[in-house]
Amino acid sequence: MITVALAKGALLKDSVTRFAKAGLDFSAVLEPSNRLLMVPSVCGRAKALLVRNGDVPVYVAYGQAHLGIVGFDVLSEKQMQVANLVDLGFGGCRMSVAVKSTSGYKSAVELPPHCRVASKFTNCARRFFEGIDLPVELVHLTGSVELGPLTGIAEAIVDLVATGRTLRENGLVEIDQLFYSTARLIAHPLSLRLDNGKLQQIVDTIQSQSDSSCL
Amino acid sequence: MITVALAKGALLKDSVTRFAKAGLDFSAVLEPSNRLLMVPSVCGRAKALLVRNGDVPVYVAYGQAHLGIVGFDVLSEKQMQVANLVDLGFGGCRMSVAVKSTSGYKSAVELPPHCRVASKFTNCARRFFEGIDLPVELVHLTGSVELGPLTGIAEAIVDLVATGRTLRENGLVEIDQLFYSTARLIAHPLSLRLDNGKLQQIVDTIQSQSDSSCL
Fold it and tell me: Which residues in chain A (123-142) have CB-CB distances under 8 A to chain B?
């Protein structure tokens, strides 16, 4: 039986649509009354694991799910051993550096060395600041990162920005972009190698309906 | 101005009650319509930061909050430099090892060496399994850890258990307990050392109304 890992939250509806086009109907997970975390497809030949964003690449890397859909932001932060197969185009947002709009900084290289940077994505932030040779102290927060500069715990933040509304409401402004993130179809590499064609067929169908590919 | 860090979620109501008894009224954070993450007290001499559980010790360790209330589970996992002052008694739950009820394991030492253990609290789990000299592979998950044994990603989990309902619903059973967790009043150590009496007065009032103390 094919197992796919789906992320709860913003990506769920589009993820279900993509798998439906490949013949796997998991629309039951979208029912408001659904409490199940393991949901069989209507055809009965697959099941979906409904997990948190950050856990999708974990289930796929350990082979407990053959396929999964998750944001590039999570893939980049987690660095798990998964095959990043298709850029699905939806769920677009920027991973950005932001500061108080009154701070005067115009780009990340202007930040003072050894300043504090708060983020949920400290691995992404570390690589970015290493890349521009700016030593910073990273403060790992798990939510409401926009509070960082307001409370003074950090001079800058690295966070996902979709519309920019949260930043504006908190008097923050983007000064640099790490990358643009979209939803990706990922697979367990060994399952793909040992596949008898069923997985590849799903991947091919989803890929053919997407504008661009990571391959 | 005194700043306190309060955890969103299950501990919030009782936390507000304790600070109210010490003269700091943050009941505005309990209003369903409240969207503010920084809320002044009614008296105007303090403000509350409304943050996620795991971020309370971070804000206190960095001195952006002088005091905070957070579960011992989070303190134990995060190991930040904060003063653990008062056991407030509420928010009680067990940090437990659980397995499939059909597995036959009766205690953690019976688990096979190098088995996989899934948890949100991998630091707590690591210390526990090191303490019983059982090498295990830890799988960090961010939610729905009870799925671990059902999907096969792990043979055991380490997770918080309050009523045990989630475990029962998923066919799991507790076989060992790491510790019992309750809400704690914590403080920024340096703020407490440099305090002119105001912080200590709040701590003393809250402590006098609690059954037991960590000191």
Answer: 139-142
Q: Which of A79, A120, A144 to mutate to test the interface with B (most CBs of B within 10 A)?
A: A144
- Measure the CA–CA gap between B111 and B135, rounded to whole angstroms: 10
| B2-91+182-208 matches B93-180 in fold | yes
**pTM of the predicted model, to two decimals?**
0.93
Q: Across the interface, do A52 and B142 touch by the CB < 8 Å criterion?
A: yes
Instruction: Answer yes or no: are the C-beta atoms of A165 and A174 closer than 8 Å.
Output: no
**pLDDT tens sequence across A61-106:** 999 999 999 999 999 999 999 999 999 999 999 999 999 999 999 9
**The pLDDT of residue A182 is above 80:** yes
ipTM comes to 0.90
Out of 3.40.190.10, 1.10.240.10, 2.40.50.100, 2.30.42.10, the CATH code matching B93-180 is 3.40.190.10
Rounded to whole angstroms, the Cα distance separating A65 from B72 reads: 34
B61 touches chain A (CB under 8 A): no
Bridge partner residues of A50 (DSSP):
A6
Residue B153 sits at the chain A interface (C-beta within 8 Å): yes
A5 by Cβ neighbours in 10 Å (0-12 / 13-18 / 19+) ranks as buried
With a CB cutoff of 8 Å and minimum separation 6, the contacts of B83 are B186, B187, B188, B189, B192
Break chain B into its structural domains and give their ranges.
2-91+182-208, 93-180
State residue A34's pLDDT score: 86
What is the spatial distance between Cα A207 and Cα A195, in angstroms, rounded to a whole number?
17
- The CATH code of the domain at B2-91+182-208 is 3.40.190.10
Nearest Cβ partner of B147 from A49, A139, A142?
A49
Does the beta-carbon distance from A37 to B152 stay under 8 Å? no
Instruction: State pLDDT tens for residues B10-61.
Output: 999 999 999 999 999 999 999 988 888 999 999 999 999 999 999 999 999 9
* Per-residue pLDDT tens digits for B84-100: 999 999 999 999 999 99
Closest residue in B to A144 (Cα–Cα):
B51
Contacts of residue B142 in chain A, CB cutoff 8 Å?
52-55
3-state helix, strand, coil in chain B (%, to 5): 30, 30, 40
